[in-house]
């Protein structure tokens, strides 16, 4: 089993930055595909970014390309999401997810483990 705990959310003005962290316990994450998803009120949980176990492959949702960066530190069993140039449309609960094997994917159903989420609110 893998337990995931997100942190780093909060309230920020448009144009600001936040860095989310996802700390894992229970298993070493080095071989897991990791992803970030977000869910705005009344909407489905949508893909944001994903990273391979080595960190060499990353993939982003189009609206965050150039603004968000996913990274990982396998020695710390932690995945990060650096979010810059935040917009009010980025307001959502952000979830970290882990996939045991396979390729990077944006498909929510492919991830077996999920954190509880952290709220990000961007004011205009």
Give an account of the 3D structure.
- This protein is an all-beta fold.
- The chain is 0% helix and 50% strand.
- Strands 2, 4, 5, 6, 9, 10 and 11 form a seven-stranded mixed beta sheet that branches. The chain has a four-stranded antiparallel beta sheet with strand order 1-3-8-7, with no helix packed on it.
- The radius of gyration is 13 Å and the shape is globular.
Describe, in short, the structure shown.
The chain is built from no helices and eleven strands. It has 124 residues and is an all-beta fold.
Keywords for this entry:
124 residues, mainly beta, four-stranded antiparallel sheet, 0% helix
Could you outline the blueprint of secondary structure elements for this entry?
Layout: E1 3-7, E2 10-13, E3 18-25, E4 33-39, E5 45-51, E6 58-60, E7 68-73, E8 78-83, E9 92-99, E10 113-114, E11 118-123
Parallel strand pairs: 2-11
Antiparallel strand pairs: 1-3, 3-8, 4-5, 4-9, 5-6, 7-8, 9-10, 9-11
